[in-house]
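Re: Re: ligand-bound prediction request (bumping)

Still looking for help on this. To restate: I need the protein modeled with protoporphyrin IX containing FE bound, output as structure tokens. Inputs repeated here so nobody has to scroll up.
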Amino acid sequence: MTRPTRAFAHLPSPSGEWPVVGHALRAGRDQIHQYVEAQVRELGPIFRLQLGKRRIMVVADHALTQQVLKARPEHFRRSVRFVRTAAELGLDMGLFTAEGDVWHRQRRMVMASFAPQRIRAYFPAMLNVTRRLQQRWLKACAATPDGVAHLDVQRELMRYTVDTITGLAFGHDVNTLEADGDVIQQHLDRIFPALFDRLVAVLPMWRWLPRDKDRQLDRSVASVGRAIEGFIAQARARMAAEPQRRAEPTNLLEAFIAAAESEDPSVRDADVAGNVMTMVLGGEDTTANSLCWMLELMARTPETLQQARAEVLTHLAGGVDTFTLDALDQLPYLDACVSEAMRLKPVAPFLPVEAVHDTVVGDVAIPAGTLVWNVMRGDSVSDAHLPHPQRFWPERWLQTGAQAVPKHLSMPFGSGPRICPGRYLALLEIKMAAAMILQRFDILGVDTPDGQPAVEQMNLTMTPVGLTLRVRPRAMG
Ligand code: HEM
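Reply:
Sorry for the wait, this slipped through. Here it is.
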């Protein structure tokens, strides 16, 4: 980072700043990311924003963002407000909110649980969930007179990722694909949107005037906490009875316990519990929404569907039961579709980090506590960096040399020491579901209430709203 030539207070700022609330009324909640992206187009890649009491430096320059994300944990940390809001809710969010030595210790524990040989051991359980998704959609098609199912695809894919992640994180089969009304999931469905509501709230009304929904929320957090304690106790008992589970854990929870014990025998159940919660928070909506956005983009660009299907049929001819990790590794075009979808529709479209001390970002001096709001969809959709940046064109990811997509232009999983540890698992989940869908179903199209592309709504992650996918079974060759 260079010497400062500008003071934070002198940065340009959007019009419409009000006393007390700053720009919060203009920015809103559901499309706050689009408000900031629109200001980037107006004011350029660096400006100042005020949301309530929060002093924010917006950065939409990918090279600068990469430097900031890399400069953790020494110079930047997760936002204190996020950590406090989660803690006030009674949520221990493990690695996601940890800092300092605790973060280092937990990061090692979590990373060990995502090593390739571990993921190999999780594969059979993941395959089972993919098979259930296929059965569910076949049943939905069979129930219609013309054999075409109209699927609320975001909800469908949430069931898929919920079953996958809770199975791995809890070591317990939460089967939302085959049965409605799982109790833990109902509690989780309440907790995560509430966390986002509180994060963006200008005033903490829940403290001054708690309502029924706030009390219900407290009960949900307590219930999930108790359930997680129970899962940990069961996993420890299974591991005591079958010691080989220590060497070859079959799910994330067992892997955490094994890694924690080998790393630091004094590790507390609380370390494990917080990370179970983080896996569920980090792994459900992110993966479901990324997959959903990709299906929308592919359905609107049918030539990409054809090409991806041809590739899948070449390498995975025999149906879900014959899927292997190695065969799923042989799908460069599908990989390119995933990267392209995450470039256009990053489910974390902004990544806020907080300055630990007075520091310099680019040429701007910022005081300790300033939030640096990294815009992840700035340069990655700008024609200064890519040809036809708004086009869904997976082929760009297969180009090499001068034509290749520049490194760090698109960073859907973040960057630096806190880069998403679940990224390989997420990519595998996305590819497994996409390969099954391409193999077993014809995608006839996507619909939205107004005929426009799905609305982007922020809910901790960027969620597609109102999207219906029309599918019909394909005969297996
Ligand atoms: C497509 C799916 C996913 C996307 C787009 C995504 C994106 C992200 C992003 C942007 C971050 C912040 C990185 C940073 O600060 O530089 C993150 C962190 C994290 N993610 Fe993911 N994620 C996904 C799936 C998952 C899954 C499946 C898991 C776990 C099962 C997971 C667990 C985590 C955790 C624990 C962190 C915090 C890491 C730390 O602070 O050290 N994520 N993810």
